[in-house]
Each structure stands twice: as C-alpha cells, then as structure tokens.
Amino acid sequence: MAEAMEKKNRNELDIAQVTTCRSTQQMLRKAAEDGVETAFHRAADMKACPIGADAACCKHCGMGPCRLSSKEPYSKTGVCGATIDTIASRNFARMVASGSASHIDHGMSMLEVFRGVLTGEIKDYQIKDEQKLLDVAASVGIETGGREIHEIAEDLYDELEKTYTQVQGEIPFVKRVPARTLEKWRELKIVPRGAMREVMEIMHRTHMGVDQDYENMVKQCCRTALADGWGGSMVATEISDILFGTPSPLVAEVDMGCLKERHINIVIHGHEPNMFESIIASANDPGLLNKVRAAGAEGINLLGMCCSGTEVMSRHGVPHAGNFMSTEAILITGAVDAMAVDVQCAMQSLSSLSKCYGTYFFTTNPRARIEGAEHIEIDEYEPRICTDRIVCRAIERFKNRRVKVVIPQNKSMGVQGFSQEYIGYMLGGTFRASYVPLNDNIINGRIRGVAAAVGCNNPRVRQDHVHVEVVKELIKNDVLVLQTGCSQIALAKAGLMKPDAAVLAGDGLKEVCEAVGMPPVLGLGSCVDNSRILMACAEMVKTGGLGQSIADLPVAACAPEWMSEKAIAIGQYVVASGIYTVFGATFPSIKGTRFHTFLFEELEKQGLGKWGFTTDPYEMAHLMIQHINKKRVALGIMGERERKLFDMSDRRAVESGEAAG
User: What is the rounded CA–CA span in Å between residue 528 and residue 103?
Assistant: First the structure.
C-alpha cells in the first residue's frame, strides 16, 4: 500500500506546467481519476541521464560502455582512447543516420507506390496533379514538351530512383540547389551520391576504430542529411503531391473538440499519406455507410494526428486532433473507436492505453509492429482490404462502447495547406506566380526575414508553450513564419494560422498579411515537407536581390521542442543548406568541446549555416532575429528604404523573365 501511494505521489503532475493544451490538460485530469499514466507521468518519474544527454557515453563496442565527464570532458578517454569529440560526433552521426533513414525510407515507399500506379498494378491511386508532375520532371532535366504524361512519369520514376540506388555522381534534386550553394557543397565534398550509400557509409564510419576525426565525421553528417532533405524527403513530398494533389489553402479544424460522440471516430496517426487517402475512400463507401447507419451512428468522423494528419488536413481539410504529446490524451476521451498507426512517432504505450478505454488499436506497416496491438497490414496494391477492415472494426466498437465518453470542447479554425508553389501564386497571382513581392518586401524592410519554426513535442518541455511564444515574438518583429509538423498544430490550436492573427504581427508584416489576406504563419504540412522550405529558399535566391546562395538569405530556423532523431537529421540538412538553426529542449553535445564549437561556429565559417541552442523562447526568437539582421546588413538592406506593396497592377506587370532578374 505504501509503495502504491509513493508511486501515486511521484506521478502527480502540475498539469498546467506540463502542457498549455487545454484539451490535454482536461484529459490528464481524467487520467488521474482513471488511474492511468501517460508519457507526462513517465517523464516526471524518469530522470534523463545527464551523460547520455550530452552524448558523452559510448556503447558502440563490447569494451564499454564508456562514460566521460560532462564537466571535465577532456579529463579521460574511452577504453580505445576515443576523445569526447570522437564519441560525441559518433553519437550525433548515428542520430543523423537514423533520422535520415526514416525519411529516406518513407520517400522510397512513396516512390514504390508511384511505380505501382505507372505499371497499372495499383489502381486505387492515380496521377492527380499533372502540372506538378511536369514541373518536377523539368526540374531534374527531363524533356516534357510534346510528350505523353505517362511517358514523362516513367522517366521521372527512373530519375528519382537514383536518389536511393546511385553509388556515384549526384542525386537528381541537386539540380534545384542554387548554383553558389551547390558550388560550396562540391568544394567541401558533401554533395550526396545516393541515399543508401550515404547512410551505409555513415554507419560504417561510426563503428569502433573507423572515423575518429570529428570534422571528417561532420562532413559525412552533412552529406547524409542532405540526402534526406534534398533527396528522400523531397521525393516523398513531390510524389505525394503528384498522386494526391498539391495543397492549396483551405480552412480546417484542429483540437480534440473535433471528436463527435454520436459518430464513429477513427484516428489515423503516422506519416505515410497513402493509408489515410485509402481510409478516406473507405469512410465514403456506400456499403460501409449502410453498416454505420445500422449501428446507430450518425456517420464516420475521420481525424488525423501527427504528420499523416497534417498532410490530409492540408489536402482535404480533414480535422486534426492534436500533435505528438496529445496522442495518448485523445484515447482517454473514450470517444475513439479505432486508432491506426503506420510509421514514426507512435508510442508503444498507445497499445496498452487503448485497452483501458476499449479503443481498437491497429498497426498497419510491416516495419512497425507494436506488442499487444492488432496488426492489419496494408497492401499498397489493394489498400482497401486494410482500411475497410479498420472501418468495420470501428463500427463494431461503436456498437459496444462501454466507457464514459468525455470530449473536450476546444476547437480552433485555421487556414492550412500552403506549398512553395502556392506562396508564389498568393503573392504574384495565378498566371504570373512569383516570389518578387516577397523578396521586394524583405528588401524594403516591411518583412524583416523568414523563419522556419518546426519540429516535435517533448514531454520534458511544457507542451506547445515554446512553439507558440517563439512564433509570437518572431511575427511581432516582422518575421514571416513557415511551419511544419507538430509545431504547426501547436500554432493552429493557438489561433495563429488565421489571417486575423496578423494583429499580433509588427506593422510591416501586418500590412503585407492584410494586403494579401494571409496569416503571418504559413503551414506547409508534415515534417517530411520541410523540403518545401528548402524549395522556398531556393526560389528566393533564384528570384534575386537577396544574395546568390541560401547562406546569404535573411532566414533562420528553429525546432523548439524537438525529441526525435529525425529532428537532428532535419536540423543538419538545414544547417548544411546554409541556414542558422536553433534547437530547444536539449542538444547532444557539450558546450566548449571542439565538436560543439565546430557545429556552432566553424560550419558557418566554411560557408554553410550553423547550430544554435537555448531553452528560452524569447532568447530563441532574438537569436534568430539577430542572425536575420546580420544577413540584412551583409546584403546592404538594413537601412530605411522606400516601402512599397505590390498591388494588382504591379503584379500583372511582372513578367516571368523580369522576376528572374
């Protein structure tokens, strides 16, 4: 009894201090009443290893694990003589390898679906955006004039397959990289050859007794991460757009208030959009809808969580129930009849927690089974077999609900579904899409610069707080913000994805937002869609007036609440592309070591970006603003200049050739 009470006391949370999400707060109070625990409780009960957090522990061979001192990192070495710089760079490299592999494998899965569509073996999906297909093909040097769509698509498949299988040369999408940036990569020998080769090589280098020079290791970190950002992730985004449609702005609802008590609630959580696209078809099947009505339900209510949810929200307006740290909380409502997951960011606890509330919990991907979960594997050639079955099981659970349903009444509306293409349409008009108005308003000072605020939630950080506060501070200082992933949902819940949020922006950014009718925060999709941010940066360079490489741009990035290895890989490809990137929560290196200094200072001196770190949202915002100001000074645009908005006559006057100049 005493032991149980001790555990209960340990697990009592100051709920307002672990999350700012009102729905999650309400469900944590219910969890306490129900006697169940969540990741918030486990994080409070589990002290993080300080040596591991600083990447000062090496367990890569049987002579260890070797633990070095965080306070005196050079006081000793590992058994093999490895210094803190070698150990930390190895650990960092393995995070880059794992994180890159997750997105690279996702991209390859999407490419396999594309191949199945082209061969006619996959009939549930088809090429939906032919213009995107033509644009992507042209960007990698494929001739499109006077040719059949199917023939162009086959050539595109063959070209993009090189992203993965090529062992020499350069991956196809480097053709999109600004010339000066690519020149720098070639000089530093960090241009990716092929994703499989880069991941294989980085894993080899981290083996005991191989690469023991932290600078050399970071070069391979750059090359591997770039194979993700300009390779696997970019392939995933572009193929998803071709097959399912390129997002354009629409209004969508966010938060747990999107659950409906008299509907069959099905939550899809993961990262691969094809399963969600299929379950949308299943949820609209007349035969299944007859079963829904027979069960006494008013309909099927599909909801997304995490990144696959962000993608379908952007394409179809499907409501989004919450980000990573709310995936357990939504089960506590008792309203979820089925939750299906595919890959990435699905906690193992979801399986056991779903049983507490009678929710049917399914895994669907052969890469990602969870002990205790029912596995209904999706066959990409016949995906409806899986998704129809999930719907049928959800109907069964609705008919047999035994738990009390408590749905938080919190719901936010926002504009979602931006893409790098739509930013051009929005600013320059449909027929003369252009980044000229964006660049001009950065040059004249109305917009100070652009920031990417992206990334996960981390239970060691107050959920959503840093995301929201850093973005509020950025827009207040006239910085236009681009969002992806869990961060995007945090901002949507806070109401910052609506045009009227421009009232919180500085005078210059507010004028631009009001003139265009856009919010000061633009949601670009899932974490794999960070490649859209790379393309937006490349377009800014191409448009002219803001330097000749990505490293010249007045842009910065941050991941305030990151937790996954994917975030480290993303951060490294953003840095390698030339962008200052600030992380919060924690960082896997020891300040003052040569490895840390190399990441935080020396990479920028080589002509790339650099890393930054702080846990304070206001300091994070101002580190980014200071960097943006530094780039403005270097470009000679820091002083007062004439401030002019493009009106419709200006836009019509912009010819594509003039825009490039």
Answer: 7
